[in-house]
Design brief:
Blueprint (H helix, E strand, L loop, with lengths): L8 H17 L22 E8 L5 H17 L3 E8 L4 H10 L7 E5 L3 H6 L7 H4 L10 H5 L2 E2 L2 E2 L2 E6 L1 E6 H7 L7 H14 L13 H10 L5 E4 L2 E4 L4 H11 L9 H4 L4 H9 L5 E5 L3 H5 L7 E4 L15 E7 L6 H12 L1 H11 L6 H10 L4 H10 L8 H7 L2 H11 L4 H18 L5
Helix pairs in contact: 2-14, 2-15, 9-10, 18-20, 19-20
Length: about 450
């Protein structure tokens, strides 16, 4: 091949690179494949197959039927496009999704994830920033603020809420009627009612409480004006040892003992175990979720219970509940970004969330859809009121996964309940552990 007779050194280098690139193309198809943009970003193909990973439910058939309907509508609106849905176990999601971040070839385009997973996945660089994509989404205007915060990191949106979960106070209507009791109107009344029930019925827990039930303890902390941590720049600082938080911890741990729920049996009880205690008829009250309804209906208490919001410290107030739930996100490695966002909107949109409520009882993340759900099923009303009163969440930081895995808050509760530590010492120890986790697991700049 002849060299150009007139060229600058820069154009000569460009010519050489073009020639070398052309020669490499003859070596095999892989040498000419499109490059993936730097930073883990994918592409924006307009046809092909999208992969979707959703959580598998205990009875997954109703969920799959709703999803199939939504996918069919999406495929009809996007010719030449297919969506393949895989249902993955919730228990192994962390390992599987982390592996997907590291291997884009096997990764999904759209993924369901827990709302406490958001910050960690953002730190790992796995989720796409969808702030601009969702800005003009009409459905988003009705999103519950707490649900929206669960997909927000540093002011940017990394997904859309799919469902929310919140807890309230279940109580035995037959026991209350026989003992002449009314649902408690304050947290102090809750403690007094629990003691009265247990004194009259020693075989019953007045209120089933668990030393390993973090999401039952947090409303006591929040209702007393405290919190477990506060934002400091790009990280957090523990506040679980502040006076208000300590008052909440003291109120919750005071429910353990022979006057209500003996520490020997209740100190290590989990949330699921407290729900089971109520469902099996061993407790007169329990703090449980809207998602626990079916367990009660399948238990001995069927037809003999009701639900009210967990009361606050003063009459007429509702204790802030933990806002749980799941979200949908798009992976940064997706090679179908625009299509993936469209599919996310279909799966997390109002129509699909309404259908998921009808099929599974999942509370919608949209306030208007949720209000309609409450009209359809009065049982949902106390949970909707609880959410409307202002639900809270744990710090949106990758450190929370380490704090959760390290059982920092359950250990705090169990140290107090067992008598090994007083509230001041136990909360001070927990704060030290939390701050170490915050320092080690902050978000990337």
């Amino acid at each position: 091949m002849a060299w150009p007779s007139t060229t600058t050194s820069a154009s000569l280098r460009t010519f050489v690179l073009v020639v070398v690139g052309a020669l490499l193309c003859t070596a095999g198809a892989g040498a000419c494949a499109p490059r993936t943009p730097a930073g883990g970003a994918g592409g924006d193909r307009a046809t092909g197959t999208l992969r979707v990973w959703l959580f598998r439910e205990v009875d997954n058939t109703p969920k799959a039927a709703v999803v199939d309907e939504a996918v069919a509508a999406f495929e009809k609106a996007h010719r030449g496009v297919r969506a393949e849905v895989t249902y993955i176990p919730v228990e192994t999601r962390a390992q599987r999704i982390k592996a997907a971040f590291n291997d884009p070839r096997s990764a999904p385009d759209v993924v369901e994830y827990g709302n406490t997973d958001t910050a960690g996945y953002v730190r790992d660089g796995g989720l796409a920033d969808l702030t601009a994509d969702l800005a003009a989404w009409d459905d988003a205007r009705a999103l519950d603020p707490a649900a929206k915060r669960s997909v927000t990191v540093d002011g940017k949106l990394y997904g859309a809420p799919l469902l929310v979960g919140v807890r309230a106070l279940y109580y035995r209507t037959d026991v209350f009627r026989e003992l002449g009791l009314k649902p408690p109107a304050t947290l102090d009344e809750l403690a007094a009612t629990a003691r009265r029930v247990h004194a009259a019925r020693p075989g019953l827990y007045g209120l089933a409480v668990g030393g390993a039930y973090t999401y039952a303890a947090l409303p006591f902390v929040w209702a007393h004006g405290g919190d477990v941590a506060e934002r400091k720049g790009r990280s957090y600082e523990a506040t679980v040892d502040d006076p208000a938080a300590r008052r909440g911890i003291a109120a919750y741990t005071s429910l353990f003992g022979d006057h209500n729920c003996p520490a020997s049996r209740c100190a290590r009880m989990t949330g699921n175990e407290t729900v089971q205690a109520f469902a099996s008829g061993k407790a007169a009250m329990a703090i449980a979720g809207d998602f626990s309804h079916q367990a009660m209906e399948n238990g001995k208490v069927k037809g003999a219970y009701a639900v009210v919001p967990l009361p606050g410290t003063r009459e007429g107030r509702i204790a802030p509940a933990f806002a749980g739930g799941n979200n949908l996100g798009v992976l940064r490695s997706s090679t179908h970004r625009t299509l993936a966002v469209d599919l996310l909107k279909t799966l997390a949109g109002k129509r699909t969330q309404a259908r998921l409520f009808d099929a599974m009882g999942f509370l919608p993340a949209f306030t208007d859809v949720r209000a309609e759900a409450a009209r359809k099923r009065p049982f949902v009303e106390p949970f909707v009121r609880t959410l409307a009163a202002g639900a809270r969440s744990v710090p949106v930081t990758p450190a929370w996964a380490a704090i959760d895995a390290g059982q920092v808050l359950p250990t705090l509760l169990q140290e107090v309940v067992s008598g090994r530590e007083d509230v001041a010492a136990a909360t001070a120890g927990a704060a030290r552990k939390m701050n170490a986790a915050f320092r080690k697991n902050g978000l990337r700049s």
